[in-house]
């Protein structure tokens, strides 16, 4: 999740907030409890984290391949 002001230019990056691991430990625990109460298990969040890491890596590799093709032209 990221937040970008509507009046911001297209070249400005959206604010993505702090890394979860940098948050206060009590806040992290409360968030995990919030998810647990709503039926979202740790196994689900772990899967999603791994999935997004892999997706990001694949997209980055695709971008690098496209950049290489562009430079070779």
Automatic annotation (TrEMBL):
One of its Pfam families is MAM33
Q: Taxonomically, which superkingdom?
A: Eukaryota
**Annotated spans, Disordered:** 1-20
Gene Ontology CC terms: mitochondrial matrix
Listed name of the protein: Uncharacterized protein
